[in-house]
Predict the 3D structure of the following.
Amino acid sequence: MLTDLYTRRALIWAFANRDFKTRYRASILGWGWSLLQPLATLVVFAAVFSMVFRVQAPPLGNGESTSYAAFLFTGIVTWNLFSSFLNLSMTQLKASGDLLKKVQFPGWAPVLGASIVQLVQVALEIIVLMGLFVWQRNIGWTWILAIPILIGTALFAQGIGLILAILNARFGDVQYIVAVVLGALYFLTPILYPISMVQGHNVLLSAVVKLNPMSWFVQSMHDVMYSLTVPTWWVIPGLLIGGFVTFWIGFVIFNRASEDLGEYL
Amino acid sequence: MSTPGKADLAVSISGVGKRFKRHTDRRGSLKELIVRGRAKNEEDFWAVRDVSIDIPKGSVYGLIGHNGSGKSTLLKMIGGIYRPTTGSIVTDGRVAALIELGAGFHPDMSGRENIQLNGSLLGMSRKEINAVTEEIIDFSGLSEFINEPVKHYSSGMYVRLGFAVAVHMKPDVLLVDEVLAVGDEEFQRKCFDHLYALRKAGKTIIVVSHGLGQLEGLCDEVAWLEHGQLQQAGNTTDTIAAYLHRVNRDEAARNPNITATRPEDDRAGNGVVRVTKAEIVSAAGDPINHAETGATFNLRVGFAVSESILGPNLRIALQHDSGPLVSMISNHAVGYDFGTIEGEQLVDVAIEGNPLLPGRYRVHIDVFDYTGSTLLDTWNDAMEFPVRSQSGEIGQGFVKLPARFTSH
C-alpha cells in the first residue's frame, strides 16, 4: 500500500494541486467561504444550545471559566474533518468517472488529492479555534497532542471514505444514506453536549455514544484543546492505530473493488 | 511459458474477450439490487471476442473495422483501462494511451499547470515532467499562451498540447485512437513526423482509425475487427482491401437500387429517340451500385428509336457532385458508329480501368442526330453513382491519370 502511494505521489499531488488552485478561483472571499460555514453553525448552535437548552460546558482548562462556544467549536472542527472526508471521497470519485474511462490510473488518487486540499481548510479552522482559546487565555502544552489525534481522525475518515466512495460508485443511493446516517451520528457524538450529560442518564444512549468511534476522537480533542488534560495513556496511540488500520482496510477494499471502475462509473 | 519469439513482441494478445453488461434499466441502484436481485435485467454483450494478435516491437499496427466493431475496446484493454474478461494481454514496456488528447485538462488551469496534471496522469514522475516541460511547450508551439487558462484555448490548441504531453512521456507502446485527424495541416505533419521518428526509434505504435488511406501509408500491419471478432490480420494492403470489399458488398446488399434514376420529366428534343435507361454494370454485365477506382465498369444506356435514323451521337456527361464536368463521353469522339438503327437499343460504354477517384458522379445524357445539329433527346440527371476506393487510397482531384515517371 505504501509503495503504491509513494509511486503515484506525483499524481496525488497533481490532483491536490488542481483542486487547490480551482477551489475558490472565481470567488472574491476565496478560502474565507470555507470558514463561514462552520462559523455560522457555531453561532447558531452556540446561541440555541446555551440559551434555549441551557447546556453547560465543562470548566475550561485554565480553571477560570467555561465557554460553550469554544467547547462546541472544538467538536465541530473535529467532526467536519470526518464528515467532509466522507463526502468529498464520494463526490470526487464520481466526478473522476469520465477520466477513468480514458486513462488508466488508480481511482484513489483524485480522492486522496481532494482530501489533502481539505486539510488546508481543517488547518484554517484549527487556527480560528486556537485564536478563540488564546482570547479565553486557555493555552496548554497538551495542544501538541491534537496533532496525532487529528492524524488519526483523518486516516480513520479516509478509510471509511474510500469504502463509501467505491460503494457509491456502484450504488448511487449510498451518498443519500450516508447523509442521513451522518445527520444522526452528529447528535450521537458529544459535540453539542459534554459526554457527562449522557452518562448515567440513559444506559442505552450512553452505550451508543461510547461505541461511536467519533466520540473518542471528539472527546480526545476536548481533553487536549479545551480541558488541557491528557486522556488515559492508551487513548491517543489507540486512535492513531485505529485510524491507520481503518485506512489500510479501506485502501485494500477500494483496490479490490475498483478494478473495473471505469466501466460502471 | 514464453516461446522464443515472444521476446520480440511489444504486445501479445491471446484469446482476449470483453463482456459488457448491458443495463436495460437505470444501473447500479440499491433498489434494483434488493427488489430484483442481481443479473436479472442485465444482458451480456461481447464487445470483443476471442481475439489473438501479436504485435511486434517497433511496428506500426493499425486496427480497422466499423463503428462498434470493438477496435476501441481492444485498444482500451491494451492500455489497461479495461480488463479483459477472458484471455490475456501482455505488454512489454511503458504504454501511453492517446485515447483522448488532453484527458483531465482542467479549464481553469494554465497550460503549464495542465502539463503537470496530464503528465502525472499518464504515469510520469514530477522529475520526468519537469525535464521535458520546455520540450513539450516547444513542440506544441504554444509558448505564448502557456500561462493562460486552457479554457481560452481553441480546440486545436488544446489537442496540440495534449499530443505534445503524450508523446513526450517516451512510451514504448503508443496507443492512438482517432486523434490524428485534429489540428491544422502543419501540426498534423508534425505529429506524423513524430510518429515516424518514434517508429524509427523502435517504439511500437497502435493506431485505430477510419482514415484507411492514412493507415496504408503508416502501418506495417493491420488487423480488421468485425463485431468484436478478428476477421483478418497481417499485410496492410491486403487487409484493407478485404475490409473495403466487405464494406462495398454490404452496401450493395443494403441498397440494391442505388442507380435509380431521376424523374424523366423536363425532357427536350424532338422525341425521335427516348433514352429509357441509365445504369452502371460491372465489366461482366452484372448490376452494381458503385464503381471502384481502377476497376473497369460499364455505363449502360438504353434508348428507343421510333423511326429509322442514321448513326446518332450519344453523349454522356459525367459531372462531379461538387459541380465540375469531369468528362464528356460521346461515340463520335471515339469514332464509334451505330449505323442505321431503329427500335430498342442497349449500349454498354466500358470505362476501362476506371480512372475516376472516389466520390459521387452525376450522369447527363443527350442524343443528337448524325450531323450534330438536331437534338433528339436529353435527360439531365439520368442517374448518379458513387465511386469507391478499392485500396483505401482517396486521392485528390477527380481522376487518376495513367501517369508514368521516367528519370533521365
About this structure: Residues 2-264 of chain A form one domain. The interface with chain B takes residues 10-11, 13-15, 17-18, 21-22, 25, 99-105, 169-174, 259-260, 262-264 of chain A (CB under 8 Å).
